[in-house]
Please model this.
Amino acid sequence: MPATGKICNFDCIYCENGFNADRRTSDAFATLPTLREALEAKLVEMSSTGELPDVITLAGNGEPTASPVFPEVVDASIHLRDEYAPEARIAVLSNGTYADRPDVHRALLRVDDNLLKLDTVNPDYIRFLDRPAKGYDIEHQIEVFASFCGHVIIQSLFLTGTWQGHDVDNTGDTYVIPWLDALRRIGPRSVAVYTIARDTPAAGLRKATPQSLDSIARRVRALGIDCSVSY
Model:
């Protein structure tokens, strides 16, 4: 992603990078040579100190899979990882909206940890919380996520509080039960349940309680799916 702003087809009210309107940039995506050179330089530096990374994560201030060179970046990252830090994992943090593109899908199958977002399956709540660009279809996303045949980690954020006079609590059965049904259909390798940990652009948002997160995680594990929790 460009360092000068944000490029994303979601505009989440909890995004640590701020609202899209406040982070606009005229700069393009970073080029493949720029990315390759920067990653290699960092890995050489880390190798010289004997402190190699556990994970190399493709993420950033926006949606990484939107980059026109994303598949090539994955290939370059795997190559450099194999050369300098063979024990490290390659991970991608994505909202999953480009995962139906054949080249992106194939690239995500090549990474070790394919983390895709699914905060809820309620269309109205998605439009309020994640604020995706037009054309987002939750049923299509569930089908795409299931097409990875288990090579996917579902990342889901739970929170409480209010924004613009609306309750944002998605920890209750109204949201959790349909979300669990979607997990059954997707069959992920694991699920990562978490809550807000940094400042959010929308005022009034609050962390979900540890008790709520633990309860949700237990229900995921009852499906036979591994689940981690971050408070």
